[in-house]
Specification:
alpha/beta, transposase activity, five-stranded mixed β-sheet, Transposase_IS30-like, Nucleotidyltransferase, domain 5
Length: 283
Amino acid sequence: MEYSHLSTFERGRLDALHQLGKSCREIAKELNRHHSTIARELKRNKAENESYSPEKAQAAYHERRTHSRPHGKWNEEIAQEIEEKLELTWSPEQIAGRLKASMPSFKPIYRWLYKGRISKGNLTVLRQKGKRRRPRETRGRFNIGRSIKQRPKEIRKREQFGHWELDTVVSSRGQSKGCMATFAERKIRFYLAIKILNRTAQSMKEALTQVVTKLPKGTFETATVDRGKEFALHKEIETHLDVSVYFADPYSSWQRGTNENANGLLREFFPKASDLSKVTQRY
Protein backbone atom coordinates (compact mmCIF):
# COMPACT_ATOMS: atom_id res chain seq x y z
CA MET A 1 0.00 0.00 0.00
CA GLU A 2 1.35 3.45 -0.92
CA TYR A 3 1.82 5.84 1.97
CA SER A 4 -0.52 8.81 2.35
CA HIS A 5 -0.79 11.35 5.13
CA LEU A 6 -3.61 11.22 7.66
CA SER A 7 -6.61 13.30 6.62
CA THR A 8 -8.57 15.72 8.80
CA PHE A 9 -11.33 13.15 9.09
CA GLU A 10 -8.90 10.38 10.07
CA ARG A 11 -7.39 12.58 12.77
CA GLY A 12 -10.89 13.19 14.14
CA ARG A 13 -11.60 9.45 14.29
CA LEU A 14 -8.18 8.79 15.81
CA ASP A 15 -8.95 11.30 18.57
CA ALA A 16 -12.35 9.74 19.30
CA LEU A 17 -10.94 6.20 19.45
CA HIS A 18 -7.98 7.32 21.56
CA GLN A 19 -10.34 8.95 24.08
CA LEU A 20 -12.24 5.65 24.26
CA GLY A 21 -9.03 4.00 25.43
CA LYS A 22 -8.25 2.10 22.24
CA SER A 23 -4.66 0.98 21.71
CA CYS A 24 -2.55 2.10 18.75
CA ARG A 25 -3.01 -1.29 17.11
CA GLU A 26 -6.80 -1.17 17.59
CA ILE A 27 -6.98 2.36 16.17
CA ALA A 28 -4.74 1.36 13.26
CA LYS A 29 -7.08 -1.51 12.42
CA GLU A 30 -10.11 0.82 12.45
CA LEU A 31 -8.37 3.34 10.16
CA ASN A 32 -6.68 0.72 7.97
CA ARG A 33 -3.29 2.17 8.86
CA HIS A 34 -0.03 0.75 10.19
CA HIS A 35 0.17 0.90 13.99
CA SER A 36 3.47 2.80 13.79
CA THR A 37 1.67 5.60 11.90
CA ILE A 38 -0.80 5.98 14.78
CA ALA A 39 1.90 5.84 17.44
CA ARG A 40 3.99 8.43 15.60
CA GLU A 41 0.97 10.73 15.14
CA LEU A 42 0.12 10.63 18.86
CA LYS A 43 3.74 11.07 19.97
CA ARG A 44 4.35 13.97 17.62
CA ASN A 45 1.17 15.88 18.53
CA LYS A 46 0.80 15.35 22.28
CA ALA A 47 2.56 17.93 24.41
CA GLU A 48 3.42 17.11 28.01
CA ASN A 49 0.29 16.93 30.20
CA GLU A 50 -1.93 17.68 27.19
CA SER A 51 -4.31 15.45 25.28
CA TYR A 52 -4.15 14.84 21.53
CA SER A 53 -5.94 17.53 19.50
CA PRO A 54 -6.84 16.67 15.86
CA GLU A 55 -7.18 20.36 14.98
CA LYS A 56 -3.73 21.25 16.34
CA ALA A 57 -2.28 18.16 14.65
CA GLN A 58 -3.75 19.22 11.30
CA ALA A 59 -2.47 22.77 11.72
CA ALA A 60 1.00 21.45 12.59
CA TYR A 61 0.90 19.21 9.51
CA HIS A 62 0.14 22.20 7.26
CA GLU A 63 2.95 24.15 8.92
CA ARG A 64 5.43 21.34 8.29
CA ARG A 65 4.39 21.10 4.65
CA THR A 66 4.78 24.85 4.23
CA HIS A 67 8.47 24.63 5.15
CA SER A 68 9.26 21.29 3.55
CA ARG A 69 8.57 21.89 -0.15
CA PRO A 70 9.48 24.48 -2.77
CA HIS A 71 6.50 26.39 -4.15
CA GLY A 72 4.80 24.95 -7.23
CA LYS A 73 7.45 22.32 -8.00
CA TRP A 74 6.55 18.73 -8.83
CA ASN A 75 7.53 15.96 -6.43
CA GLU A 76 6.16 12.53 -5.53
CA GLU A 77 4.53 13.67 -2.31
CA ILE A 78 2.52 16.52 -3.79
CA ALA A 79 1.66 14.45 -6.89
CA GLN A 80 0.17 11.73 -4.70
CA GLU A 81 -1.93 14.23 -2.77
CA ILE A 82 -3.20 15.79 -6.01
CA GLU A 83 -4.13 12.36 -7.39
CA GLU A 84 -6.08 11.53 -4.23
CA LYS A 85 -8.09 14.75 -4.50
CA LEU A 86 -8.77 14.23 -8.21
CA GLU A 87 -10.13 10.75 -7.46
CA LEU A 88 -12.50 12.43 -4.98
CA THR A 89 -13.72 14.63 -7.90
CA TRP A 90 -11.99 17.77 -6.62
CA SER A 91 -11.19 20.30 -9.33
CA PRO A 92 -7.59 21.52 -9.85
CA GLU A 93 -8.75 24.94 -8.63
CA GLN A 94 -10.02 23.45 -5.36
CA ILE A 95 -6.84 21.44 -4.91
CA ALA A 96 -4.67 24.51 -5.43
CA GLY A 97 -6.80 26.39 -2.91
CA ARG A 98 -6.29 23.63 -0.35
CA LEU A 99 -2.55 23.32 -1.05
CA LYS A 100 -1.89 27.03 -1.44
CA ALA A 101 1.21 26.85 0.77
CA SER A 102 2.97 24.69 -1.83
CA MET A 103 0.76 25.11 -4.90
CA PRO A 104 0.09 28.83 -5.51
CA SER A 105 -1.70 28.19 -8.84
CA PHE A 106 -3.95 25.51 -10.32
CA LYS A 107 -2.25 25.77 -13.73
CA PRO A 108 0.64 23.37 -12.94
CA ILE A 109 -1.92 20.70 -11.99
CA TYR A 110 -3.49 20.83 -15.46
CA ARG A 111 -0.04 20.89 -17.04
CA TRP A 112 1.16 17.84 -15.09
CA LEU A 113 -2.07 16.02 -15.89
CA TYR A 114 -1.82 16.66 -19.63
CA LYS A 115 1.83 15.57 -19.59
CA GLY A 116 0.95 12.34 -17.79
CA ARG A 117 2.93 13.15 -14.66
CA ILE A 118 -0.15 12.64 -12.45
CA SER A 119 -3.04 10.16 -12.78
CA LYS A 120 -1.18 8.71 -15.81
CA GLY A 121 -2.65 11.50 -17.93
CA ASN A 122 -6.19 10.19 -17.42
CA LEU A 123 -8.36 13.26 -18.14
CA THR A 124 -11.54 11.52 -16.98
CA VAL A 125 -10.59 12.48 -13.42
CA LEU A 126 -11.61 16.03 -14.34
CA ARG A 127 -15.24 16.85 -13.70
CA GLN A 128 -15.29 18.94 -16.88
CA LYS A 129 -13.07 18.70 -19.94
CA GLY A 130 -10.67 21.52 -20.66
CA LYS A 131 -9.32 24.23 -18.43
CA ARG A 132 -11.46 26.28 -16.13
CA ARG A 133 -9.84 29.62 -15.56
CA ARG A 134 -11.49 30.34 -12.23
CA PRO A 135 -13.18 28.33 -9.47
CA ARG A 136 -16.89 27.75 -10.00
CA GLU A 137 -19.33 27.20 -7.15
CA THR A 138 -22.84 26.25 -8.21
CA ARG A 139 -24.57 27.08 -4.95
CA GLY A 140 -23.62 30.75 -4.79
CA ARG A 141 -21.09 32.67 -2.76
CA PHE A 142 -20.49 36.24 -1.63
CA ASN A 143 -17.49 38.29 -0.55
CA ILE A 144 -18.89 40.53 2.18
CA GLY A 145 -18.75 39.80 5.89
CA ARG A 146 -16.15 39.67 8.66
CA SER A 147 -13.06 37.60 7.82
CA ILE A 148 -11.74 34.89 10.13
CA LYS A 149 -8.56 36.96 10.28
CA GLN A 150 -10.50 39.42 12.46
CA ARG A 151 -11.50 36.71 14.92
CA PRO A 152 -9.98 37.17 18.42
CA LYS A 153 -6.99 34.96 19.23
CA GLU A 154 -8.67 33.41 22.28
CA ILE A 155 -11.26 31.88 19.95
CA ARG A 156 -8.58 30.34 17.77
CA LYS A 157 -6.84 28.96 20.86
CA ARG A 158 -10.09 27.46 22.20
CA GLU A 159 -9.65 29.18 25.53
CA GLN A 160 -13.28 30.22 25.95
CA PHE A 161 -16.60 28.40 25.67
CA GLY A 162 -19.33 29.71 23.37
CA HIS A 163 -17.63 29.84 19.99
CA TRP A 164 -19.13 27.60 17.30
CA GLU A 165 -18.47 26.34 13.79
CA LEU A 166 -21.44 25.95 11.42
CA ASP A 167 -22.03 24.01 8.21
CA THR A 168 -24.62 21.99 6.29
CA VAL A 169 -24.81 18.32 5.37
CA VAL A 170 -26.86 17.73 2.22
CA SER A 171 -28.81 14.91 0.57
CA SER A 172 -27.49 13.08 -2.47
CA ARG A 173 -27.81 15.14 -5.64
CA GLY A 174 -31.19 14.48 -7.21
CA GLN A 175 -32.64 12.92 -4.06
CA SER A 176 -34.18 15.95 -2.35
CA LYS A 177 -33.39 19.38 -0.95
CA GLY A 178 -33.49 18.05 2.61
CA CYS A 179 -30.35 18.69 4.63
CA MET A 180 -29.00 19.24 8.13
CA ALA A 181 -27.61 22.36 9.75
CA THR A 182 -24.68 21.34 11.94
CA PHE A 183 -23.17 23.15 14.91
CA ALA A 184 -19.91 22.32 16.73
CA GLU A 185 -18.63 24.16 19.82
CA ARG A 186 -14.89 24.70 19.50
CA LYS A 187 -13.73 24.26 23.11
CA ILE A 188 -15.64 21.18 24.29
CA ARG A 189 -16.57 19.93 20.77
CA PHE A 190 -20.28 19.61 21.59
CA TYR A 191 -22.13 18.83 18.33
CA LEU A 192 -25.70 19.41 17.15
CA ALA A 193 -27.41 18.50 13.88
CA ILE A 194 -30.82 19.98 13.05
CA LYS A 195 -32.92 18.91 10.08
CA ILE A 196 -33.87 21.80 7.76
CA LEU A 197 -36.03 21.93 4.63
CA ASN A 198 -33.36 23.21 2.28
CA ARG A 199 -30.01 24.91 2.01
CA THR A 200 -31.32 28.46 2.01
CA ALA A 201 -30.24 31.38 4.16
CA GLN A 202 -33.70 31.54 5.74
CA SER A 203 -33.63 27.87 6.76
CA MET A 204 -30.18 28.29 8.30
CA LYS A 205 -31.25 31.42 10.15
CA GLU A 206 -34.28 29.60 11.57
CA ALA A 207 -32.13 26.65 12.69
CA LEU A 208 -29.60 28.96 14.32
CA THR A 209 -32.39 30.90 16.04
CA GLN A 210 -33.72 27.62 17.41
CA VAL A 211 -30.32 26.71 18.85
CA VAL A 212 -29.50 30.14 20.30
CA THR A 213 -32.89 30.62 21.97
CA LYS A 214 -32.96 27.14 23.53
CA LEU A 215 -29.44 27.25 24.98
CA PRO A 216 -28.57 29.28 28.10
CA LYS A 217 -27.60 32.91 27.56
CA GLY A 218 -23.92 33.32 26.71
CA THR A 219 -23.67 29.83 25.22
CA PHE A 220 -23.54 31.11 21.63
CA GLU A 221 -21.17 34.05 21.23
CA THR A 222 -19.69 33.60 17.73
CA ALA A 223 -20.14 31.50 14.60
CA THR A 224 -17.38 30.60 12.14
CA VAL A 225 -18.80 29.64 8.73
CA ASP A 226 -17.88 29.32 5.04
CA ARG A 227 -19.18 31.63 2.32
CA GLY A 228 -22.00 29.40 1.15
CA LYS A 229 -25.30 31.08 0.32
CA GLU A 230 -26.92 29.58 3.43
CA PHE A 231 -25.06 32.20 5.49
CA ALA A 232 -26.11 35.19 3.38
CA LEU A 233 -28.31 36.51 6.23
CA HIS A 234 -25.32 36.94 8.52
CA LYS A 235 -26.14 40.60 9.21
CA GLU A 236 -29.63 39.70 10.43
CA ILE A 237 -28.14 36.94 12.57
CA GLU A 238 -25.71 39.37 14.17
CA THR A 239 -28.42 41.97 14.78
CA HIS A 240 -31.27 39.77 16.01
CA LEU A 241 -29.35 37.00 17.79
CA ASP A 242 -26.31 38.98 18.99
CA VAL A 243 -23.94 36.42 17.46
CA SER A 244 -20.75 37.59 15.74
CA VAL A 245 -20.21 35.79 12.41
CA TYR A 246 -16.73 35.13 10.98
CA PHE A 247 -16.07 33.75 7.50
CA ALA A 248 -13.33 31.19 6.86
CA ASP A 249 -11.03 31.56 3.87
CA PRO A 250 -12.09 29.84 0.61
CA TYR A 251 -11.13 26.15 0.38
CA SER A 252 -9.83 26.15 3.96
CA SER A 253 -12.07 23.58 5.62
CA TRP A 254 -9.35 22.96 8.22
CA GLN A 255 -10.22 26.38 9.68
CA ARG A 256 -13.50 24.76 10.71
CA GLY A 257 -11.91 21.44 11.57
CA THR A 258 -14.12 20.63 14.57
CA ASN A 259 -17.27 20.80 12.47
CA GLU A 260 -15.67 19.05 9.49
CA ASN A 261 -14.57 16.13 11.68
CA ALA A 262 -18.01 15.80 13.27
CA ASN A 263 -19.74 15.98 9.88
CA GLY A 264 -17.52 13.15 8.70
CA LEU A 265 -18.66 11.01 11.61
CA LEU A 266 -22.29 11.94 10.88
CA ARG A 267 -21.79 10.70 7.32
CA GLU A 268 -21.03 7.24 8.68
CA PHE A 269 -24.68 7.07 9.74
CA PHE A 270 -26.06 9.04 6.78
CA PRO A 271 -23.89 8.33 3.69
CA LYS A 272 -23.89 10.70 0.73
CA ALA A 273 -26.52 8.57 -1.01
CA SER A 274 -29.01 9.32 1.80
CA ASP A 275 -32.23 11.27 1.32
CA LEU A 276 -32.17 13.47 4.41
CA SER A 277 -35.76 14.62 3.89
CA LYS A 278 -36.81 11.17 5.15
CA VAL A 279 -34.79 11.46 8.35
CA THR A 280 -36.60 12.55 11.51
CA GLN A 281 -35.07 14.98 14.00
CA ARG A 282 -35.14 12.23 16.67
CA TYR A 283 -33.51 9.61 14.42
